[in-house]
Amino acid sequence: MGTVTVMGAGSWGTAFAMLCADAGEDVVMWARRGEVAERLNREHRNPDYLGDVVVPDRVRATADPQEALGDAEVVVLAIPSYALRANLERWTDLAPRRTAYASLIKGIEPRTCKRASEIIRSVLDVPSSQVVVVSGPNLAKECARRLPGATVAAGPEPDVVRRVQAMCHTSHFRVYTNPDVVGVELGGAVKNAVALAAGMADGLGYGDNTKAMLVTRGLAEMTRLAVALGGNPLTCSGLAGMGDLVATCISRQSRNRHVGEQLGRGRTLDEVVAGTRMVAEGVKSSGAIAELAASHGVEMPIVEHVVKIVHQGADPLQVVRALMGREPKPEFHGLEGMPT
Fold first, then answer.
1. For 204-241, what is each residue's pLDDT tens digit?
2. Same domain for 138 and 230?
């Protein structure tokens, strides 16, 4: 096997590098901050993100993108969606063109409403066959602790998808394949926006009925958008859809749920963001998801009202009243006659 390069040394990038090492790969991990790379090489830990978890010896870190990308057979992109394009443009002359690219990114670019795979193909001018998206209920700290879990690798070229599957499939982490890039990628993005709403419900003191309502109605919104963009509705009922949605909406480890909870308790977004170094993708990409839905005539009231709170300063209690006061509709409104 060749070298797997993970571009990004945050919590999920580090945990994913560990999974690849456990699967027998030699891994190079690029860290934006030199001190993070130095500590990983010296102490085999990334305490800013994963505490005292020990990173395998097969993972080597560098802050030099040229060194990281030079011998890569597979390049894994583990950076926030809003920073993807700028980083790829900086790496254009360094990035190999015949290698496979695996995206761990769960967000939509704010300005263009593009998915990560679309940005990768466009900036690096690589064919869709070389791009795979990896998404599922993958809370980084649990994966790093090697607790049993699973994910989905999606792409149009089976051989490339199987290579990505093999590089991170272990006795404690199962990797399923799916050709539906659109559905898998949108599942990972939309669930973050819904998790903000679930967190707000927690912050407002609501109960399990409310959480169940938000999860299932959020799934309906996710499915409507995926189908409108050409995705398979079955994908939304799988790991990358419902699985990730449930984990992100209920877990105390979820960044997006945490941000929503703090907003529900009356804190401002600036106050919440200032208190964490980790990125809550739903904050940046919820507006783009709402725009994408509007441009395709898709109703996503939960996401739309999250945007009003996060980006327009609306009062969460007033938003709850507005959502609950919407006109009654059939449960599967907008999903009738959906292709399977």
1. 999 999 999 999 999 999 999 999 999 999 999 999 99
2. no
Containing structural domain, residue 31:
3-179
Split into its structural domains, the chain has a count of 2
| Cα–Cα distance for residue pair 108/291, rounded to 1 Å | 10
Strands of 100-103's sheet in order across: 59-62, 26-30, 3-7, 72-77, 100-103, 131-135, 149-154, 173-178
CA angle in degrees (0–180, nearest 5) for 332-335-339: 140
End-to-end CA distance of the chain: 37
Q: What is the pLDDT of residues 75-121, one digit of tens each?
A: 999 999 999 999 999 999 999 989 999 999 999 999 999 999 999 99
Instruction: Please tell me the distance from the alpha carbon of residue 83 to that of residue 62, in angstroms, as a whole number.
Output: 19
Q: Look up residue 159 and give its amino acid.
A: D
Distance (Å, whole) CA 130 – CA 261: 39
Distances (CA, A) of 27 to 52, 102, 169: 20, 14, 15
Question: Which of these three, 179, 196, 212, is where a domain ends?
Answer: 179
CATH of the domain at 268: 1.10.1040.10
Alpha-carbon torsion angle 206, 208, 209, 215, nearest 10 = 100
Catalytic residue set: 191
**SS3 call for 55:** coil
- Tens digits of per-residue pLDDT, 238-296? 999 999 999 999 999 999 999 999 999 999 988 888 877 666 888 989 999 999 999 99
Among 141, 120, 122, 32, CA closest to 76:
120
